[in-house]
Design goal:
249 residues, 9 helices, DNA-binding, Chorismate lyase, Arc Repressor Mutant, subunit A, 2 domains, GntR family transcriptional regulator, two-stranded antiparallel sheet, Tscrpt_reg_HTH_GntR, WH-like_DNA-bd_sf, single chain, Bact_HTH_transcr_reg, alpha+beta
Length: 249
C-alpha cells in the first residue's frame, strides 16, 4: 500500500479543522506525531502542515508549534438600493453601522475593454474604459476587492473621469454619474463563488485557494449600462444581506 502524499495528509487535516475535530486556537500534533500517524517521513508531514499554513487554516509559532487559525467574526454587507440612492459610499455606511472604520485604496488607469466587460457595458471589445482597482478595508484590515470599469465615451473630459480623484472623489457611482447627467435607475448583481486567485489571496491576506464570493454588479440608466464591477469578498468573513423594496414605485 502506497504511503500517503503530503496533499492527502493536508486534506485529512483540513477536514478535521473544518469539522471541528481541531478547534480554533488548538495546537496541531507535532510533525513527528503526524509522521508516525500517517506512516510517512517528517519532511512529508512538514510539507502537509505548510500547505495548511499557505491556505490560511493554521499559523506556525516559532518554538511553540502550529495552531488552528481562529475564524474572524462574520460581518454583514448590505446590498440595498436605498443606500445607493441617498448618496455617499454604501460600503462606508455598512462599516459605520458595525462600528468599524471603513476605507479604501485605489488606482485608476485607461484600459481596453475585454470581451466580457464590453458585453456587460454594451460597448465594442477594445473600446476604452477607466479601470479602477480597489482594496476596501475595515479598521485597516482588507475586507474586499473590487475592479470597476466605466466607459470613457461617457466620462472622458468630465470632472468625474477619475472615480477617486477630483471634487467628486469617493461619492459613489450613483452620485458621480448624476453630476454628468446620467441618472442611474437600477442595478444588476450576479453572485458566484470560486477559489481566490493568488493575487487576490495576497491582497486580502487569506490563504491560497480560500473560497470567495464574486459579485458581478452593473449599474444602468434608462438608456444603457454606465459602470460594471467585479467585487470579491471572502466567504468566511462576510455574509451578504439583500434588502429589496416591494411596492408599485
Amino acid at each position: 500500500m502506497a504511503r500517503p502524499t503530503y496533499q492527502r495528509i493536508a486534506d485529512d487535516l483540513r477536514q478535521r479543522i473544518i469539522t471541528g475535530t481541531y478547534g480554533a486556537g488548538e495546537r496541531l500534533p507535532s510533525r513527528q506525531a503526524l509522521a508516525t500517524e500517517f506512516g510517512v517521513g517528517p519532511r512529508v508531514a512538514a510539507d502537509a502542515v505548510q500547505q495548511l499554513v499557505a491556505e490560511g487554516y493554521v499559523v506556525s509559532r516559532t518554538g511553540s508549534g502550529t495552531y488552528v487559525r481562529p475564524k474572524p467574526p462574520i460581518r454583514r454587507l448590505t446590498r440595498s438600493w436605498y443606500r445607493e440612492d441617498r448618496g455617499g459610499s454604501p460600503f462606508r455606511a455598512d462599516m459605520q453601522a458595525q462600528a468599524v472604520r471603513g476605507g479604501w485604496e485605489s488606482s485608476s488607469e485607461t484600459a481596453n475593454a475585454p470581451d466580457d466587460i464590453a458585453g456587460r457595458l454594451a460597448i465594442d471589445p477594445g473600446d476604452e474604459v477607466m479601470r479602477t482597482r480597489y482594496t476596501f478595508t475595515g479598521d485597516d484590515e482588507p475586507v474586499m476587492l473590487s475592479t470597476s470599469y466605466e466607459p470613457l465615451a461617457i466620462t472622458r473630459g468630465t470632472e468625474v473621469v477619475l472615480p477617486e480623484d477630483g471634487v467628486h472623489a469617493g461619492r459613489g457611482v450613483v452620485d458621480r454619474m448624476r453630476e454628468i447627467g446620467h441618472e442611474i435607475t437600477y442595478a444588476s448583481e450576479i453572485v458566484t463563488a470560486r477559489p481566490a486567485a493568488a493575487d487576490e489571496a495576497d491582497r486580502l491576506g487569506v490563504g491560497r485557494g480560500t473560497v470567495v464570493m464574486v459579485i458581478q454588479r452593473t449599474y444602468f440608466t434608462e438608456e444603457r449600462p454606465v459602470e460594471t464591477a467585479d467585487i470579491v469578498v471572502p466567504v468566511d468573513r462576510y455574509e451578504l444581506s439583500y434588502m429589496i423594496p416591494v411596492g408599485r414605485d
